[in-house]
């Protein structure tokens, strides 16, 4: 346990340095004059001229050499100073916090919904007959086969435009969260309900499950005592992977519902060459990935402690 | 004497195929009943039919009377735990892999006997202490040995108060001393109740006493008092089963192999595993065509020794010198204890054989005679490893090894999961092959009789 956490700390330092340096190099090597792009983002595409670009260049010291810029950035990073946005002038840390907060809210809401959908459906598939199983399998494949924005648009058309139950886009109230979270939840559940189903099928058919019944425990007690935890082992690991890859992958949903999350914000920052925001966002996401992975590992270890004592 | 169980014409069908011929029996209180027979003789189906545990697709006919009353499937299932219980064949698989041992006993007291959690814990701790598991109460099944797991499973099974026990191969894969423990435990747990044991092990039948039924391929061969039948068997089949016990085998004639070439010299070998020294300063020489037996209690490093000789396991100290330099690495082979785990179930055995032939450019002409020799039916090649019997599969594993002209074969308890008749055949076959082909065989077994009667040299760990 201790070695795991220590390893992850070392990994974290590596991730911070690696992600930061990589975004630095990549952003420097993007084609086009950076000063022009920043000026365009600040004043609008039609109001840019060489003079505005020159002003921006001077203000932000964009003509300084790559090495000295890297050194400045690294020194700032060591002091946890992420700088200000080149476009809005707001501190990066605040911008990222705002975006990340919304992304995490959406991700966890989506994940929670997907669990609420996938677990009952998976258990139903595993315990009922072949007919139910095949029907649910077909339905899952159908949802899975649709690109996530199609699901989003369908939900929008139905619940926002036709019935007017929920707002079309934006954020701020719980009602705004429903449709994006449902879209996310549905697309995640389409896969995870199969993982639940396979795991449950394996457990329901296992000798220890049967032995528990033979020992005299009722169906329900057997499920509670021996079902849930054993079924959870692969499911939790899979949900962890889903969660980690989802945070960057929800850009589609964020864009569709104008949700001010990190995927959405990062895309905009890249168009605007807002380097401090890109670096800040990439960095925080890197840290988040390591953190979430560690959390999932600890959770998996807590559920299934086998095979750790030896290693 | 009270009759606990009375079966009238119980048979089991899969569709129209009869898997178990109609059988009738009576089990009286305090008189254990043992059903003895080879694997695949439908014995396990009988126990499942009594419990109401037949797999989907199988149906049973006939009537089952329990405790003097004819019972339906539902009624029998309601007796589980409190009146009637069946012990699992493979305790490791029957215990929840993620739950601590004592919890698996405690839950029975708590949910079946409706005792308080504290009371349940106290009772389960007592139970585990009584079966010699003190100190291991909070271990998970994967941290227990096979014998310990079986004792835990028996404690868990009987905690609900059931004293009518069905035990289906309760000692599969256990060594002799563990086997005796389990049998004694079974006897004490079923005292004042009933015990129906299904086994292929004559020694267990003898130990349990009581009544005995001998079965072959789903049919009853002989029935009566255990002691009489075992002393004076009437049916040829019973005779064969008794003779297949290693204890009764004819002693191997010690053939001196001093003149044969040495192929392996082991000098001062030590092996450590998980911080524990398994053995130290072991020295021996293996010659061509020699059958070398390794005996010792479970966990003493028998399998580890074989693996070390095959370079599958690093050793701590000493040297292992292979003197046969012409032999390729794939001519040093291993025969596994559990045949199905040594084969892939996703392709047919024929496919596996073809792959081997192609990889090593083996002469196809050699396969047919060898298959005849090993008594492998031709149709076996179209099936996969789960669709053939354990004995057939182990013989197929031997075929696979022989095609590679092995110089050294490490047979890791090759017969511990086979019934005695098949086990005897497989063991004899290995000895014959060693003599004929000059391949040295390292035979590991938990049965000292088997080793003593077959091996040229014995290593005791």
From TrEMBL, chain A:
Signal peptide: none annotated. The chain crosses the membrane at residues 9-27, 104-124, 145-165, 177-196, 231-257, 277-296. Keywords: Cell membrane, Membrane, Transmembrane, Transmembrane helix, Transport. Its main location: membrane. Residues 100-300 form the ABC transmembrane type-1 domain. It holds the Pfam family BPD_transp_1. It is a multi-pass membrane protein. It is found in: Cell membrane. PANTHER family: DIPEPTIDE TRANSPORT SYSTEM PERMEASE PROTEIN DPPB-RELATED. Belongs to the binding-protein-dependent transport system permease family. OppBC subfamily. This is ABC transporter permease.
Automatic annotation (TrEMBL), chain B:
It is a peripheral membrane protein. Its main location: membrane. PROSITE patterns: ABC_TRANSPORTER_1, ABC_TRANSPORTER_2. SUPFAM superfamilies: P-loop containing nucleoside triphosphate hydrolases. SMART domains: AAA (SM00382). It is found in: Cell inner membrane. The keyword Nucleotide-binding applies. Keywords: ATP-binding, Cell membrane, Membrane, Nucleotide-binding, Transport. Signal peptide: none annotated. Residues 5-242, 264-461 form the ABC transporter domain. GO terms for molecular function: ATP binding. This is ATP-binding cassette domain-containing protein.
């Amino acid at each position: 346990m201790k070695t795991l956490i220590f390893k992850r700390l070392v990994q974290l330092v590596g991730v911070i340095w690696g992600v930061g340096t990589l975004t630095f190099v990549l952003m420097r090597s993007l084609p086009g004059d950076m000063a022009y792009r920043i000026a365009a983002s600040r004043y609008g595409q039609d109001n840019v001229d060489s003079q505005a670009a020159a002003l921006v260049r001077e203000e932000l010291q964009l003509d300084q050499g790559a090495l000295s810029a890297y050194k400045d950035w690294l020194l700032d990073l060591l002091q946890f100073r992420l700088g200000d946005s080149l476009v809005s002038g707001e501190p990066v840390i605040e911008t990222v916090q705002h975006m990340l907060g919304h992304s995490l809210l959406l991700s966890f809401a989506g994940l929670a919904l997907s669990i609420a959908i996938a677990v009952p459906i998976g258990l139903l598939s595993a315990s009922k007959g072949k007919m139910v199983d095949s029907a649910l399998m077909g339905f899952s494949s159908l949802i899975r086969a649709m690109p996530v924005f199609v699901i989003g648009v369908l939900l929008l058309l139905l619940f926002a435009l036709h019935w007017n139950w929920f707002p079309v886009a934006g954020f701020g109230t719980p009602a705004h969260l429903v449709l994006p979270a449902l879209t996310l939840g549905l697309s995640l559940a389409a896969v995870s309900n199969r993982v639940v189903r396979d795991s449950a099928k394996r457990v329901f058919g296992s000798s220890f499950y049967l032995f528990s019944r033979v020992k005299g425990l009722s169906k329900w007690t057997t499920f509670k005592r021996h079902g849930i935890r054993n079924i959870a082992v692969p499911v939790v690991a899979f949900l962890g992977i889903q969660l980690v890859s989802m945070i960057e992958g929800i850009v589609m949903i964020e864009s569709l519902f104008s949700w001010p999350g990190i995927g959405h914000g990062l895309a905009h920052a890249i168009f605007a060459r807002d380097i401090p925001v890109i670096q800040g966002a990439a960095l925080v996401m890197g840290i988040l990935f390591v953190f979430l992975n560690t959390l999932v590992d600890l959770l998996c270890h807590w559920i299934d402690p086998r095979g750790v004592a030896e290693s | 004497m009270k009759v606990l169980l009375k079966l009238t014409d119980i048979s089991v069908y899969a569709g129209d195929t009869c898997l178990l011929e109609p059988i009738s029996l009576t089990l009286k209180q305090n008189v254990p009943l043992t059903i003895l027979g080879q694997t695949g003789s439908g014995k396990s189906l009988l126990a499942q039919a009594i419990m109401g545990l037949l797999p989907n697709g199988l149906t049973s006919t006939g009537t089952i009377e329990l405790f003097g009353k004819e019972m339906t499937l539902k009624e029998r299932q309601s007796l589980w735990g409190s009146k009637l219980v069946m012990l699992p064949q493979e305790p490791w698989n029957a215990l929840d892999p993620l739950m601590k041992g004592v919890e698996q006993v405690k839950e029975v007291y708590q949910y079946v006997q409706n005792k308080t959690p504290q009371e349940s814990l106290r009772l389960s701790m007592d139970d585990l202490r009584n079966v010699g598991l003190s100190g291991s109460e909070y271990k998970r099944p994967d941290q227990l040995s096979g014998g310990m797991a079986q004792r835990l499973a028996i404690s868990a099974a009987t905690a609900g108060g059931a004293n009518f026990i069905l035990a289906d191969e309760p000692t599969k894969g256990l060594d002799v001393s563990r086997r005796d423990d389990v049998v004694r435990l079974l006897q004490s747990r079923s005292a004042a109740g009933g015990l129906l044991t299904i086994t292929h092990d004559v020694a267990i039948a003898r130990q349990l006493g009581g009544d005995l039924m001998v079965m072959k391929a789903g049919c009853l061969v002989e029935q009566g008092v255990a002691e009489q039948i075992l002393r004076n068997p009437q049916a040829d089949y019973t005779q064969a089963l008794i003779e297949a016990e290693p204890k009764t085998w004819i002693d191997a004639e010690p053939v001196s192999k001093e003149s044969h070439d040495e192929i392996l010299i082991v000098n001062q070998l030590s092996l450590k595993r998980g911080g524990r020294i398994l053995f130290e300063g072991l020295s021996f020489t293996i010659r061509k065509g020699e059958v070398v037996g390794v005996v010792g209690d479970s966990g003493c490093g028998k399998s580890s020794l074989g693996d070390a000789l095959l370079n599958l396991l690093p050793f701590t100290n000493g040297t292992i010198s292979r003197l046969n330099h012409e032999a390729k690495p794939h001519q040093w082979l291993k025969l596994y204890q559990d045949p199905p785990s040594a084969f892939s179930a996703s392709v047919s055995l024929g496919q596996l054989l073809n792959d081997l032939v192609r990889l090593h450019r083996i002469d196809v002409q050699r396969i047919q005679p060898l298959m005849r020799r090993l008594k492998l039916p031709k149709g076996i090649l179209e099936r996969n490893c789960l669709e053939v019997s354990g004995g057939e599969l182990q013989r197929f594993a031997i075929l696979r090894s022989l095609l590679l002209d092995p110089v050294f074969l490490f047979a890791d308890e090759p017969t511990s999961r086979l019934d005695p008749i098949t086990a005897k055949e497989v063991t004899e076959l290995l000895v014959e092959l060693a003599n004929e082909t000059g391949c040295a065989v390292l035979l590991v077994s938990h049965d000292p009789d088997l080793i003593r009667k077959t091996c040229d040299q014995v290593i005791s760990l």
